[in-house]
Amino acid sequence: MRNTATTEGTHAGKGELRNLQLLLQSIGAVLAGVLVVIILSVATDLVLHPNGAFPSWVEPMLQTQVLYATVYRVISNIHTIAVFPQWGQPMVDALFLLALTYRVLYGVAAGYVAASLAPERPMLHVVVLGIVGLGLSLVGAIATANGGPQFGPKWFSFALVITALPCTLAGGKLHKIYAQV
Hints:
The chain is mainly α.
């Protein structure tokens, strides 16, 4: 004769363990989406801001020295593309539009990643990620709303708030489309 209390306890323990695994996978899927946006955005910002790869035109140097210094700096900082101005220097709106564009694309990628890693109900994970992104963007917009020009134009912060959820939803939709193929 089997002990039913022990068997039921074992099944209940396995069910609880499975629920814990699903919860951890769900948290991991959303966290991975958040990290995708943060890491890609910060990395792109770092690459696009110059770090002295080219000397200033106002430095009094001989042409040969300029050539050698430029070649040396380009080779030593080959990873840098000087699109954005130095940190702390003002940027024109067109560059903020560029920054918004790649952040939108990274938001779509984050939604795709979250949906791909979700153990079940991928669009629910995408919505949670979108709400997290919305909340973080809103906190950033509020924190910088009364800041100076070093925080950029107000439209940029609020554009990040407005695009957070739709971008992640688009990424989730892309996952759904490609998962059916």
